[in-house]
Amino acid sequence: MTSIRHVAFNRVDVDDWAKTDQQHTNWPVVYLLDGKRKLYVGETVSAHNRIRQHLDGPKKDAGLESIRVVVDDKFNKSVCLDLESHLIRWFHGDGQYELLNGNDGLTDAQYYDRELYRESFRDVFEALRSEGLFSRSIPQIENSDLFKLSPFKALNSDQAIAVTDIVEGLLEDLQHPDIRSTLVVQGDPGTGKTIIAIFLMKLLADIRDHRAHDDLEPDSMFTEFFVPENSELLRDLRMALVIPQQALRKSVKEVFKKTPKLDPKMVMTPFQLGESDVEYDLVLVDETHRIGQRANQASGVQNKKFTEINRALFGDDDAKHTQLDWIKARSRHQLLLVDGAQSVRPHDLSPATLDAELRGARDAGRYYRLSTQMRVRAGADYVEFVRGMLRGEDPSRPDLGEYDLRLFDDVGEMRAAIRARDAEVGLSRMVAGYAWDWVSKNDSSAHDIEIDGERMRWNSTDKDWINSPGSLEEVGSIHTVQGYDLNYAGVIIGPDLRVSGDEIVADWDAYRDKKGKENTGHLKGAFGDDELLVFIRNIYGVLLTRGIRGTYVYVCDRGLRERVRSLFSPLPR
């Protein structure tokens, strides 16, 4: 039977409390220290000794007032590590407390009866929630951006290996002030590239600020990095995170606002970094494939800024200068997070530039590949299946397990199914390719998309659309969902993609993103149907890999719909 035991955070009360039960001195437990909107979560096999250590260390001056100890006769060390990990992630995702834990690595190991124990974790959560420590339910927390983008993550094996190798390489390079380096992390949708960036920034900040007397779990994943020489090496570390997409950038800023040692000002646009007069030690670039080159920008102001930044950094406004060149000019070391198959516009960084960065990183031993699918429960085979389908390769449907992949013949039925899934688990939305004009942007009474009598509007905001009021009744574009997770995605494949003969082709007239088919950037003078097809395939590749639990699909072109139908047919049992 699980119980939560209370004691004041002072030496006298803790010493007296220890005498009342042997489990207070020699039993695996999870404990919480809280007070003044600050909270620390830990696990130990000796609550008395561990809390005494906190009373002798920096926690005694952190404004903490009370202790809650979670005790269960059936707990063991593995269970406590797992419960500690869950509580840290839930508390940070809830956002009610400033979490004082460091980012030295959370555990996600297998152990006997893990799923059974994890069911009991929900009872612990509800008990703590009844005491006012949580403000929202588990589904509400786990559907939030703060939870999904939190640096407090239990990394999978290839993420952990990548983080270890990156930190080792960076610490080695920082010992030589004359060295400049570019590190590259490459991964398909859902492999956790954004999480790697956020996790690394919190980890490096914690190593930088670590002192010998600070709390540190001796068997944590990254304990080896928390030594005085590394703290000294990182003492004046200046970091920034560049995110090209406005919606994702806003969400990450909110995460940084709720995370000690991270500051929203660290999250920047490429223009902000280019205009900065700071020389950064490390700049991390999320969605590097969306970084821009010299081309017609979204506004006259940005065109002017592009020219001014180029001249300030390089002395001229040569078209060869890209925003990646700005980043390299403003930083000694860069970490680029890349998936070239998510490039969606002509002025995105060119494939040749991305390939050169990949080759350079490989040659320098600074290339890291993420392969484990963390978003889509159907796994990496589903991602490749979708991309193969869009390339017209007619791939065999893989075993998707419980993943809910469906083709709809009626878009109204798909909308109803998405509403039903949202009522069940939340975070279910309609999305579509950019095959309809955004009329409602200037006329809120207008509808943008009409299919078989079903009338729909595009997203009413391009900032954090997924969580905005009314988003369930709207349709999101690529620019609102790239980098985000959904539980269920209802994807409309518009008339911009169709079948002609045996080929899947792009329909130039049906594709309505003017910036998406400008004769500009690296394709200036050579932008045609084949190039547009690559971008449209990439867009649908992103949209079809947003759903964690399932993806529902409606295809406007009848020929393409029948082709998709043949591929979606379930495997025989």
The CATH class assignment of the largest domain is: Alpha Beta
Strand order of the largest sheet: 12-20-17-13-16-15-14
CATH topology of the largest domain: Rossmann fold
Number of β-strand runs: 20
Shape label:
globular
Sheet bearing the most strands, described? 7 strands, mixed
How many domains?
3
Low-confidence stretches: none
Q: How helical, in percent, are the residues?
A: 25-40%
Put simply, the count of helices is: 19
Report the mean per-residue pLDDT as an integer.
91
CATH architectural grouping of the largest domain: 3-Layer(aba) Sandwich
The portion of residues forming beta strands comes to 15-25%
**Mind telling me the C-alpha Rg?**
25 Å
Find the structural class using helix and strand composition: alpha/beta
The CA-CA distance between the termini, in Å, is: 42 Å
Label this structure with key terms.
37% helix; GIY-YIG endonuclease; Rossmann fold; globular; 6-stranded parallel beta sheet; alpha/beta; single chain; 7-stranded mixed beta sheet
List the topology elements.
Layout: E1 3-8, H1 11-18, E2 29-35, E3 38-44, H2 47-56, E4 66-71, H3 77-94, E5 98-99, H4 114-130, H5 138-142, H6 145-148, H7 157-174, E6 181-187, H8 193-209, H9 228-233, E7 239-242, H10 246-257, E8 267-268, H11 270-275, E9 280-285, H12 300-314, H13 323-330, E10 331-338, H14 351-363, E11 367-370, H15 380-390, E12 404-408, H16 411-425, E13 428-432, E14 449-451, E15 454-458, E16 474-476, H17 478-481, E17 486-493, E18 497-500, E19 503-506, H18 529-543, E20 547-555, H19 558-568
Parallel strand pairs: 3-5, 6-10, 6-11, 7-8, 7-9, 9-10, 12-20, 13-16, 13-17, 15-16, 17-20
Antiparallel strand pairs: 1-4, 2-3, 2-4, 14-15, 18-19
Helix pairs in contact: 1-2, 3-4, 15-18
